[in-house]
């Protein structure tokens, strides 16, 4: 079983903790201001807003070395909801990877809402978590945690695909904010193989 540390106790942090717990994995849930508490998990989920990432990563860089760090952020301007806040040739995950050269960085969870993670479904479909990253073993380990918790995980490719995942997350958030879809809805993935 995996040991998962989640930094962030909001809706997403709670939902991810629930999924990992359902799968029988141990979970450490830390508030983003709990900088004095050591991160003990091999998988560390940054379940905080994009605006908090730099401070948390800077404060915890040494403790994150050698760990798989999962970025769930959607780096959008929450005041205007009109643009991503990273360069067009980059992503929040790429920025985190640059700040944490001794960690394996994955992008995941940003294309799902907390409600669909907790429920395990989007309408009639099993909730699917898209995972991008350059380390196949780390992606497989996270996928196993998700599968054991009742979700579907799909490898979305290398970490450079994080930019497209952030664009999908941005679209979904703006649709929900403009009441085009509900916060318990979202995109589903149908496999017709």
From TrEMBL:
The keyword Oxidoreductase applies. Pfam families: F420_oxidored (PF03807). Residues 35-75 form the Pyrroline-5-carboxylate reductase catalytic N-terminal domain. One of its GO terms (molecular function) is oxidoreductase activity. It comes from the Bacteria. Keywords: Oxidoreductase. Signal peptide: none annotated. PANTHER family: DUDULIN-RELATED, REDUCTASE. This is Dinucleotide-binding protein.
């Amino acid at each position: 079983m995996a040991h998962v540390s989640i930094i962030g106790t909001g809706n997403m942090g709670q939902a991810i903790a629930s999924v990992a717990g359902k799968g029988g994995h141990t979970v450490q849930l830390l508030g983003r201001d709990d900088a004095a508490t050591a991160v003990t998990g091999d998988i560390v989920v940054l379940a905080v807003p994009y605006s908090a990432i730099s401070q948390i990563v800077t404060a915890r860089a040494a403790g994150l070395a050698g760990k798989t760090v999962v970025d769930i952020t959607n780096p959008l301007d929450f005041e205007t909801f009109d643009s991503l806040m990273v360069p067009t040739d980059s992503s929040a995950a790429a920025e985190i990877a640059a700040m944490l050269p001794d960690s394996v960085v994955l992008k995941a969870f940003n294309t799902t809402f907390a409600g669909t993670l907790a429920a395990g479904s989007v309408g009639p479909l099993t909730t699917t978590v898209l995972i991008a990253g350059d380390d196949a073993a780390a992606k497989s380990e996270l996928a196993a945690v998700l599968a054991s918790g009742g979700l579907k995980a799909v490898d979305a490719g290398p970490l450079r695909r994080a930019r497209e995942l952030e664009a999908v997350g941005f679209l979904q958030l703006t649709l929900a904010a403009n009441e085009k879809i509900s916060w318990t809805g979202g995109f589903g993935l149908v496999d017709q193989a």
